[in-house]
Amino acid sequence: MSIKGKAYIAGAFEHPTRKAPDKSVAQLHAEVALGALADAGLSKDDVDGYFCAGDAPGTGPLSMLEYMNLKVRHVDSTNIGGSSYIAHVAHAAQAIALGKCNVALITLAGRPRSDGSSTGAAPRRDNPEQPDFLWESLFGMETLNAYAMCAMRHMYEFGTTSEQLAWIKVAASHHAQHNPNAMLRNLVTVDEVLASPVIADPLHRLDSCVVSDGGGALIVTKPEIARSLKRPLVKVMGAGEAVKHQSGGQVDLTYSAAVRSGAIAFEEAGVRPADIKYVSLYDSFTITVLVQLEDLGFCRKGEGGRFVADGNLISGQGRLPFNTDGGGLCNNHPVHRGGMTKVIEAVRQLRGEAHPAVQVPNCDVALAHGTGGLISMRHGGATLIMERE
Amino acid sequence: MSTDAVTALALHNPETNAFWAGLIEGRFLVRRCEDCGEAHWYPRAICPFCSSSRTGWQEASGRGVIYSYSIMRRAKVPYAIAFVSLAEGPTMMTNIVDCDFEALAIGQPVKLAIRRREDGLALPMFTPA
């Protein structure tokens, strides 16, 4: 059984806030939920399935369902970090295909910026009961140096350069200049990325994403309901998920979970990387984008540096436009979890509702991929392929 | 978590406290499976390769090579984090100490350098061989 064509993304909403000291986390979840429902043309009483991850306050979906006063018959709180929400779309499609729900709501929201939490160089708030906790926290492992070691190894094995990584940030800034909500709207050059301070070798400050408050929500429905609404039809074509870890000490930092999740998604969707007109890629750091591009098959392993150089990811210029909202590198990274906004911008592109300056012409097939957790250690990969009908 | 709480966690974890107790006495242990023969990291009671419960501690050579590393420059005191591939097989996260950060390189041979904290806990770190 496949989810291909069994569900549609009928509503998508990104919270415009980037700093919300005057709102609670639960309130932000409810605001994005109502935003996505309004976008779809549905009401809260239509929702019969709810999906959330670790950013939702309370035990799984319980507190948020009570807060929003939703009465659902299907819940899923799969938590694979920032990739969760991409997997949630697939899980919602599965539930819809099995008749477990008809209108699924997925929410993400939080306010790490207002709360002054992790900037990537602060100790991670892991659970001490995690079996890996001592073996990493005692050595000063933080988000930044975990990704930096991945970049360092990539450079060693394949000759990837800081200039090539910088092109990823440059492309994101080209897109962010058109997004009035983006935190960083200034165009940056390769030289400016390289001139920014090195935080954890070889990653510079401008190789890193922003920290922001906010969130987003999605509505996934069955085909009959999607066709009854007034929005353009965005069909779920295929999805894949995988978790990669350190394999008992057989560490290989050159690839991510996208190798497996991407292959599964492409097979289910029945398309190839060459068919993808627009791609949303998790961009916690520039190296994250480069590794995912290789792993998803947009170029061969080791050739990501050459692939991203010279503006190849810039809409209107390059072969593969990416993150046309400015992504996590320039726009926002709500709750340090970028998967939600990756799906939202892909939906905008497929609907033809991206900013005209970055809209990809004839954008009929798009892919969103997330890497949640730490790419050098444990992380979830979730891939989603969507088609405009 | 406070330093003391982390130390208590290390010394009282029933599965791995022998590792930390051994290191305090100067012995660097890895966990090896008596059935499939493979050493793994981090140490577990159950072999992550063949699922055997017949695993035991083995004193390691303390020799390895740097698989990858990064200098954390934004810290109050910059430090080198690394993955070191041990001569016994597995690759572990650690710090490289007593070194010129600018001279570190992937593939560089390193040797064990046990670091003792004020609260008595000893940490398995490495230094260029």
Automatic annotation (TrEMBL), chain A:
Residues 240-378 form the Thiolase C-terminal domain. Pfam families: Thiolase_C_1. InterPro entries: Thiolase (IPR002155), Thiolase-like (IPR016039), Thiolase_C_2 (IPR055140). GO terms for molecular function: acetyl-CoA C-acyltransferase activity. It comes from the Bacteria. Coiled coil: none annotated. SUPFAM superfamilies: Thiolase-like (SSF53901). PANTHER family: ACETYL-COA C-ACETYLTRANSFERASE, NON-SPECIFIC LIPID-TRANSFER PROTEIN-LIKE 2. This is Thiolase domain-containing protein. It comes from Bosea caraganae. The lineage of its organism: Bacteria, Pseudomonadati, Pseudomonadota, Alphaproteobacteria, Hyphomicrobiales.
From TrEMBL, chain B:
Residues 20-53 form the ChsH2 rubredoxin-like zinc ribbon domain. InterPro entries: ChsH2_C, ChsH2_Znr, NA-bd_OB-fold, Thioester_dehydratase-like. Residues 57-114 form the ChsH2 C-terminal OB-fold domain. PANTHER family: BLR3430 PROTEIN (PTHR34075). This is Zn-ribbon domain-containing OB-fold protein. Signal peptide: none annotated. Pfam families: OB_ChsH2_C, zf-ChsH2.
